[in-house]
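Incident log entry.

Two folding requests arrived from the same account within the same minute. Monitoring flagged them as a possible duplicate submission, but the sequences differ. Recording both here for audit purposes.

Request one:
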Amino acid sequence: MQTAILRTARPILTGLASLASLGVVLSCGWLATMELFLRRPDYGWRFLVEAAIVAESGLTVAVLEDLVPAAPFRWPLTAGAFATGLAGWWVVAEDLSRPGLPARPHFEGYLLIIGLALIAYGALTIAAMVTRRQP
């Protein structure tokens, strides 16, 4: 039995998760594009990871906005959001663990912002998928 709090919070949670998904699509899409243009060492695997996150986030928007049926995608998207949140955690930890923060030369502040966005996306998507109504 669902509580009244979950019923009233569900639209807000779904909207926030959709907004976070769109932000991840834009930021990781930008990163993937830059990987293709800059072609730094090992750019291939980074491009594939970023493209997979873009696809997952786009599918999350489609499910949350009821553009596709949620039933077959609910748990795979929940697992993907967990993995994406962990990737965001790793990006933040890796960026903050370098000595001389933030005065060091070439501080990559955008990585910190994108890592935090990935964590927020993961948490919001997991919450939205777990509280989603069963068809």
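Request two (distinct sequence, not a duplicate):
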Amino acid sequence: MSDRRNTYRAVLAEAREAELRVGRRCLLVSIVEESAGGLCASAADAPQFASGVEGELTTEDGDCLRVEVMHLENFNGTYRIGMRRLNADLRGRRMRGARSTSPLLLLVGLTIGLYAGFAAQVEPVRDCLATVPTLSRILYRF
């Protein structure tokens, strides 16, 4: 396997706090870098697991990701953990208060909002346009 990366790694301006759970062990981490295929986190405590194990990473904003620990390194007193995403999101495992970003739900909400907005404006607009003689015949014909 090549040492060259296939994806761009973005260094986060502000670290995101998360909890990495591997088996029964839990480790508080800060996500410092992300890429399309994975992420890198740092931890103050030493991890009690080896690379190659699978776990769940739950962020403070409710995202729950299935990850595989790929790399462990002690870097200036903190531990760097390189992880690969196994799937984007574990549905049903979100924390309370996390918002849904499903495209279908967004489309349904937008459609309902548009219809409600149009229905609220129909009568006042129709009454205002009815004062124009030509438009009044067109509007009240239907």
